[in-house]
Amino acid sequence: MQTVSTKPYLIRALHEWCSDHGYTPYLVVRVMSKMQVPMEHVKNNEIVLDISYNATHNLSIGNDYISFSARFSGVSREILVPVGCVVSIFSRENGEGMGFEYEGPNETTETPDDSPNDTPPRPTGKPQLRVVK
């Protein structure tokens, strides 16, 4: 029997928790070169996305992909990220949330100082992730 990942269920639960308490849920996503995100907002092969209902349209947090449309610099963009590339979800207001292991392929965006076998960088400074009980 194939094991089903708990990651999408935890992402949905934390998104609901943030929304219920008036917090803004943010995702940190490890970006691959062919991912459907605005590459001009990617830093250190990661992008931080506001996935609140106010910032997104047609948000779908599925078992394999998270998809929605959102405005970036006034331009509407369709976003599609694999759940395996999500490295954390947290509340912007208090930093509470959860971090995950990167489960995507060993592919990175193509920048001169990156090699394909580098490990993903870890965010530093605020916000701090704390386990939500």
UniProtKB/TrEMBL annotation:
Annotated Gene3D superfamilies: SspB-like
Molecular function terms, GO-annotated: peptidase activity
InterPro entries associated with the record: SspB, SspB-like_sf
Pfam families: SspB (PF04386)
Keywords (A to Z) from UniProt: Hydrolase, Protease
Protein name: ClpXP protease specificity-enhancing factor
Keyword presence, Protease: yes
Annotated region described as Disordered, given as residue ranges: 97-133
UniProt signal peptide: none
GO biological process: proteolysis
